[in-house]
Input
Amino acid sequence: MRSLMRLTPRERRHHRLRKTLRGDGERPRLAVYRSLKHIGGQIIDDDKGSTLVGVSSSSKLMRTSLKHGGSLKAAQVVGEAIAKQAVGKGITRVVFDRGGYIYHGRVKAFAEAARKAGLQF
Output
């Protein structure tokens, strides 16, 4: 880990958030990652240190259905897909980890699509 002085502002916000956010077996953590070209999410059980569900706009399944992975439409499709997979595995309640990103735009679209598809947070 780099020293806190060398971190980007987003990385500093993420470290601040992760001090208090923790996913467990009952309510795993839904972590979102956003880049310029893609968006993705993982549902993580921090107690076991394992990823339960993961979906990204760069995966083969999503690349065939999406023209561009860095759009609002892609964020909605990925949010809906991760929620459907999670509900299929019996996960309905999660803790949302926005990863230091501002809750706006693609991150907001991802979260709202996941809520609409059945996840509670």
Summary: Strands lie at 29-34, 39-45, 50-56, 95-97. Residues 9 and 86 are 31 Å apart (CA to CA).
